[in-house]
Fold:
Amino acid sequence: MTNALIIGANSAIAHAIAEQILEQPGNHALLRVSRSSLPEIPQTQSGASTVSDWQSDYSEQSIEAICSNIVATGMHIDAVFICNGVLHGNFVNQGSHTDFFPEKKLEDVSPAALSHVLQSNAMLPLLWLQNLIPLFATNHPCKVVCFSARVGSINDNRLGGWYSYRASKAALNMLLKTVSVEFSRRFKKVKLIAFHPGTTDTHLSKPFQANVPAGKLFTPKFVASQLLDIVQSVDFDGQLSYLDWNNNPIEF
Ligand SMILES: NC(=O)c1ccc[n+]([C@@H]2O[C@H](COP(=O)([O-])OP(=O)(O)OC[C@H]3O[C@@H](n4cnc5c(N)ncnc54)[C@H](OP(=O)(O)O)[C@@H]3O)[C@@H](O)[C@H]2O)c1
Structure:
């Protein structure tokens, strides 16, 4: 049995994670959070698993309220998946909708877009972790996966570009590393993973799929299956693991 909290549950990879947890034998409890309403998941097992959905605008108030409700249920959560991430799209900037896209050169960097990407990709996951502290304090073993990206590796940055996205995932990694140092003292039964799914066929990667070599564009289903195996096997070692889809460590 797995009880899992999936945040950013409308991500294509998150859908696959939810489906695959429910396909495993046993009765599971899934808690899903998203900005929008979520599709039902077909239950292939006995049907005694439960799925509870929350809608959130990801404001501090909303995150706090949802986490308080989850803690109040007294449910033991075995795994948390924070799947949120933006690379392109639009956001509201001083009342008007503004498009953003990964920067090719320094002149493309806009403070408003950089701030939006940092907020969505680095600040939001940290806020969830902050508000989930009462859950971690129950001492029930919990594995926490935050979706990062290989381009967040400073060591791996040979191509340049994508200023905001790279910086946001590097910031996420540093925030998670700092949390892991603190949790190794406070909550020894929490394991943190910064996960790189590989280039996966989702809305996020759509504009960038043309140059992906054959066989290197993964399905969400494949990535979810790899990730669930990693979560299953990883140890509670008090460290942040920065891992790719193949369970290989990535240098920070
Ligand atoms: N696809 C790839 O090739 C690839 C490669 C490396 C890393 N990643 C990372 O993998 C994760 C999952 O992405 P995906 O590929 O599955 O993409 P996706 O299907 O486009 O999912 C996007 C995710 O980001 C959230 N999101 C979208 N706009 C947001 C906003 N303004 N503020 C907060 N959250 C927002 C969505 O949450 P809602 O449920 O609330 O809509 C959803 O969880 C991301 O962190 C991404 O950076 C993906």
